[in-house]
């Protein structure tokens, strides 16, 4: 498996080079500095969050590349590459591909290899990455993990995993397949959360370093305070685990029509991330939007940013940490 991933990585780097040549003609030069943290001298961790990239494959019927997806992701990556303080982690918050296809991962891998300058990349699976009705969930999960192992050496066997980045715990939760076992039912695409994942979450939370915030990333929201109904399975059980700890932050995407939202529920901080990829529907559907997360010893700052336009959004939250 490791040898295959290594060879796959070489192949994908070649694809990345070809993609970079394509993008030279479509992306303007980067500015020297694109943005700066609020308090650079005391910054402990800086994270960029991209939700719903929806990288598409080749449009065979029209014989063309998905240039809109290329453009939106590349401009956003170039924006964070010009940050005055290094980006410790880039989080891809699910629906990174449109259908979980190998070609879509190849495009995504190529663009990230060329333009991503974050020190680490933390990737969450979304319902589209589980391929909706195009393949068995286990196949989709294995493909997802194989490509990310090729990209950065991340070794995972399930859709969920955790990593310590800069001394802080990052947790990825994810659906594991359709509830009825019927892969032809796209409405049941992300409805299984196994007992194993619930037990793993409880153990991972217990093992997290005390006194530091914990960052949980899940494509679909698990809280009740947003204007759309709770959708993620076993959300009540997940909330019960999270509520046992201080300074827990949960980030979700999925809802393209929603702007950046913040909700404090039973001591847990929930944040909805807007979308990088525009689908052209909903009252709020602006390409290139995401979140910039700044972590300090006594507070966490969450800033909305349009990475494509290189502009800060109006949404801005400062959360004082429980000491």
Number of helices: 6
CATH class: Alpha Beta
Q: How many distinct folded domains?
A: 1
Please, what is the CATH homologous superfamily?
Answer: Metallo-dependent phosphatases
Question: If you average the pLDDT, what whole number results?
Answer: 85
Uncertain spans? 179-189
Number of strands: 12
How much helix, percentage-wise, in residues?
25-40%
**What kind of assembly state do the chains in view correspond to?**
single chain
| Strand content range | 15-25%
The secondary structure category is alpha/beta
CATH architecture: 4-Layer Sandwich
**CA-based gyration radius:** 19 Å
Largest sheet: 6 strands, mixed
Strand order in the sheet with the most strands: 3-2-1-10-11-12
Secondary-structure element sequence?
HEHEHEHEEHEHEEEEEE
Q: Give the N-terminus to C-terminus distance in angstroms.
A: 44 Å
Describe the structure.
- It is built from six helices and twelve strands.
- It has about 325 residues and is α/β, with parallel strands linked by helices.
- The protein has a single domain, classed as 4-Layer Sandwich (Purple Acid Phosphatase, chain A, domain 2), CATH 3.60.21.
- It has a six-stranded mixed β-sheet, with no helix packed on it. A six-stranded mixed β-sheet has the order 4-5-6-7-9-8, covered by helices on one side.
- A hairpin with a 4-residue loop joins strand 11 and strand 12.
